[in-house]
Design brief:
Elements lengths: L1 E3 L31 E4 L14 E9 L9 E8 L5 E6 L16 E6 L1 E4 L5 H13 L12 E2 L7 E4 L18 H14 L6 E2 L34 E2 L11 H9 L25 H5 L35 H8 L30 E6 L13 E4 L16 E3 L10 E3 L1
Antiparallel strand pairs: 1-9, 2-3, 3-4, 4-7, 5-6, 7-15, 8-9, 10-11, 12-13, 13-14
Helix pairs in contact: 1-2
Length: 415
């Protein structure tokens, strides 16, 4: 499938009722949970320094009646001093002349304890939940793909591997997923594992959204149905224990925080505390902004200038060499492509591929943080991909796409 990237130059603002879109989810207990959770013997929490402020705990989730390779890991973020929320300044130390955002307006927020998937959602997991969902009355616009690729490193055109087919590899991030399908799929995963869905069509949270085809407008601001409870304006059950898209504050927390509670700068790649992704310029000096450029950021991300490469052994021991991908997916060496999760170094809290590989959906509308404008035709995205040369690379940058743009995503839960 050929997907043309279109440069979108404007954001139209709707005059309508704001969706239930809490910036920070409520803390809940997990007494309703029926998912099978197996604690990993090598969990980060077992090696936790008692003086460290942030405790991370790894849990492996199994899907009922599904193959072993559909399991996925969630990392729980907890605070060791008994508090239930921590401070974060969105976009802090993100500004520099060459940043694609190029304007820094730091915005203080409180982040509650949460769980986030260690990797982006894999095609294995996506596919089997999707099949269960279709059999149980769900409807989707797309089918997802087993990663994506380009011809060379041409930043204008993306292609999909194995769109809608049975999985051929393990731990390849699902690609070609639009925002509407992503939230409906999260509901399906919740129901499949016996949890309470998050996104609903009614204010009493009795009817989960199970149909993303209510609106099929692709690149247009007109004719949207922004009625509360519709796919573009869902009611959000903030107390549900089910799966959902991350809030942007959670993503940036996972990207920038270290276990002692301090942060890397917003102009750095997640996990890389050695310096900025962007080079320093005379304009930065004139504005009194000084920083060091990293020389190792490529160790933390797959992007346009290294995504034709390979990884002999990922974090979970998978073979991501070009020869194997050519055999299993038909990948042609020399072309940029998505890679198996865990082929680069993680953030300080243990999350992989927060930037690079595939751009990720957030729940929020894409508006300037702290703005009086609350609704737009874009949904927020974080992280660049394997082909882009400009977009949203660092831990403090963000942007937006129309909801039917096909990218990747990871999942969160309340903790």
């Amino acid at each position: 499938m050929k997907i043309l990237l279109i440069l979108l130059l404007s954001i139209s603002i709707f005059s309508c009722k704001e969706p239930v879109n809490p910036f920070l989810p409520e803390k809940i207990t997990n007494s309703e949970s029926k998912e099978e959770i197996n604690q990993d013997d090598n969990s980060d929490s077992q090696n936790q320094n008692p003086e460290e402020f942030i405790k991370t705990t790894l849990s492996t989730i199994s899907l009922p009646n599904c193959p072993e390779n559909t399991k996925f890991d969630m990392i729980a973020i907890n605070f060791t001093d008994g508090r239930t929320e921590d401070d974060l300044i969105l976009g802090e130390n993100q500004y520099c002349k060459k940043s694609s955002s190029n304007v820094e307006i730091p915005y203080p927020v409180k982040v509650k304890q949460f769980k986030m998937s260690k990797y982006m959602v894999s095609y294995n997991t996506w596919y089997h939940v999707y099949q269960w969902a279709i059999k149980n009355g769900y409807k989707f616009i797309g089918k997802g793909s087993e990663g994506m690729y380009a011809k060379g490193n041409d930043a204008g055109v993306y292609y999909a591997f194995n769109e809608g087919g049975e999985p051929k590899v393990e731990e390849m991030p699902v690609g070609s997923v639009n925002w509407r399908d992503a939230i409906v799929w999260c509901n399906a995963l919740s129901e499949m594992t016996g949890l309470t869905p998050v996104y609903c069509s009614d204010a009493n949270f009795k009817t989960p959204l199970r149909d993303s085809t209510q609106s099929t407008t692709v690149f247009a601001d007109t004719n949207w149905d922004m009625t509360p409870g519709k796919i573009d304006n869902p009611y959000v059950n903030t107390k549900a224990n089910g799966y959902r898209l991350p809030y942007t504050a959670e993503w940036e927390y996972a990207a920038r925080k270290k276990t002692d509670g301090t942060c890397i700068e917003g102009r750095n790649i997640p996990g890389d505390e050695s310096g900025s992704f962007y080079e320093h310029t005379s304009t930065d000096t004139a504005n009194g902004i000084e920083f060091t450029q990293s020389t190792v950021f490529g160790n933390y991300m797959w992007y346009r200038y290294n995504a034709a490469g390979e990884c002999a052994k990922t974090a979970s021991g998978k073979d991501d060499t070009n020869a194997v991908m050519q055999e299993k997916l038909g990948h042609k060496p020399g072309n940029n492509r998505t890679h198996l999760s865990g082929g680069k170094l993680p953030s300080h809290l243990g999350f992989y591929d927060l930037t690079g590989n595939l751009t990720e959906w957030m729940f929020e509308y894409n508006v300037q943080h702290g703005s009086i404008i609350k609704v737009s035709s874009f949904r927020e995205v974080r992280g660049t991909d394997f082909l882009s040369d400009t977009n949203y690379k660092t831990s403090g940058e963000y942007g937006g796409y129309f909801p039917l743009h096909g990218i990747g995503f990871r999942i969160c839960q309340n903790n």
